[in-house]
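Contributing new complexes? Match this layout with 2,5-dideoxy-2,5-imino-D-mannitol.
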Amino acid sequence: MTINSSYIWLLLLLVLLKHGILETEASHSRNLEALQPAAASPSQIYRTSYHFQPPKNWMNDPNGPMVYKGLYHLFYQYNPLGADWGNIVWAHSTSTDLINWNPHKPAIFPSQEGDINGCWSGSTTIFPGGKPAILYTGINPSNQQVQNLAVPKNLSDPYLIEWDKSPYNPLMTPTPENKINSSSFRDPTTAWLGPDGRWRVIIGNKLNRRGKALLYRSKDFVRWTKAKHPLHSVKGTGMWECPDFYPVTSNPIGLDTSTVGALGIKHVLKVSLDDTKHDQYAIGTYDHVKDVFDPDAVAAEKFSGLRYDYGKFYASKTFYDSLKKRRILWGWINESLSREDYIAQGWSGVQGIPRLLWLDKSGKQLMQWPIKEIETLRENKVGYPPRPLKGGSILEVQGVKAAQADVDVSFELSELKRADAFDPSWTDPQLLCSQKGASIKGGIGPFGLKLLASKDMQEYTAVFFRIFKGQYKYVVLMCSDQSRSSLNVKPDKTTYGVFLDVDPLHEQLSLRSLIDHSIVESFGAKGKACITSRVYPTKALDNEAHLYVFNNGLANVTISNLSAWSMKKAHID
Ligand code: DQQ
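Output block (do not edit by hand):
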C-alpha cells in the first residue's frame, strides 16, 4: 500500500469510526494496517540525529514507557494525519538499548465509544508476574475525558504489537455525583499496589483553580473507587496534567513504583502545569495508610518550584527499568518554531534523551543524568589538558562535529573575590539570565559554552554560569541564552535560567551539553539542574556549526577538564 492510499484509508476509517459505522472489533486488523508508521520524508535541517522522533508528523507526550521481555517500549501521543496536534493515537516503538528504535503500528487508537475522539496520555503498570496493562484517557463521543484499560493480546510477543481494550471501559468517568469536571480529568499514572492488596492510581484534575491528583483504588484493576481525598492538591495551580508518583532514594539504584515504607525512601509527586507548561515536582513522604502525600518543602503551599528542567521539557513520565534496576525519565521537547513553520516542516516535537533519576544526597532535589547507553554513540574524542581561560577569552573546540556532539567541561575558580554582589531582590533566575545574557560582562562569568555557533558569531547559543557573592554564600546562576541562536526572527528565543545549589569554593562547576542540530540539552553540576533549548540556526548548520568555551567575565577561570565527542546517528526509523 502506498503512503497516500494509507492516508486515505486512515481518514476514511476515522470518519467511519466517528459516525459509529464500523464495528470496532471487526475492523481491528484493518485499522492497524491503515495506521502503519509513515515513511521518512526528505531530510530536513532541524531534524535530530540521536533524539527520538518519528519520521514525520506531530508527536507530544511520552506514554507508558516500560520494559517487557528484555525490550524497551515507548508509546507516544501522535497525529498520524499531520504535523499539528489532533487525531491522537498511541504510536509505538521498541528498543534494546533506549537509543536505537524500531517503529510498530500504533498500539492504541480510537475504536471504542470510550475513546472515539482520541486516545490521550496514560501509563503502563506491570503486574506481579510481569504482565503489563495500560491505563489511558479516552475522549468519548460527548468529548468527556474517561479512563480506559488495555492489555496485550499476546503475552508471548515481546513486541506487544496488539492490545485488547477492556469490555468494561470506561472504568472511571466524570459524573455530577463525583463532581469531576469532564474536561479536566486525565492522564492516569502507573498504579502502585498497597500493602492492603489494593491498587492505587492518580489522575490529573482541577476544580476551579485548584490542581489535584485524584486518587482511585481497586482490587481487580477494573472496578475503581474514587478516594474521598486526593493524594495531594494545591490551590491556584490550574490543571495538573500527566501526574507521576514514585519512590526514590539517594542511591541511583531505582525502586519499583509499588515500593513503600522502606528505610530512606522519599516519594516524588510530579505534575505538568498546564498554565505554564512546566514539569514541577515535590519531594515528600507518602503515608500509605492514610494515602496522602506530604511534601517536605514549606514554600508555595509546599510546592517549592522545583522543576525537572528549566527550559523546554513537558508531560514527562518515569518508569522503573527492572532490567538495569534504575528509574528513567522521558520528557517531550516541543518546537520553539511558529505553528505555521512546524506545519510547513512536516513534523513537530522530539523526546529528550532518557535520563537516569535519583535523589540528591541533600534530600532536597532530584539528580538527572543522560543514560549511560548514549555514550555508545560517542566517537572521535577530543580532550584538553587543564588550562586557564582568561577573562575575556574564547577557545574553539576543534575536531568534533559541533552540530551533533556531547561535550563535558568542568571549571575551577580561584578568584572568587571578584564576584559581584548578589541583590536579594533577584528571586527569578530566568529573568536574571535574560537581563545578564552571555554578552554582559560580570566579575565572575559569564563563562561556559557557545554552541551551534557560526564562525562569524552572528549565531550561537550560550550555556554558562555566573557567580555572585550573597550575604552568607556564593550564588551560582546557570543560564541558557538563545537570544542570538538564529538570524530567523520568528522562533521563540526566551532565555532560561536556574540557581544551582553548589558551593564554588569547594566544588568544581561542571557542564555537559548534548547538542543535536536543533536541540541543546544541558546538565549543570553533574545533574543538579537541567536546561533544554530548541534552537534553529540559519548559518551554524551541520559542518558550519562551531563549538567554543568562553569566559566573558573579569576573573580568570581554569578549565579543569574538557572532553568532547562527535555523536553517531542513532537508528530511529
Ligand atoms: N497531552 C495529552 C493529554 C495531556 C496533554 C493530549 C499534556 O492527555 O494532558 O495529547 O501535554
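Reviewers usually confirm one structural detail per submission. For this one: The two ends are 18 Å apart (CA to CA).
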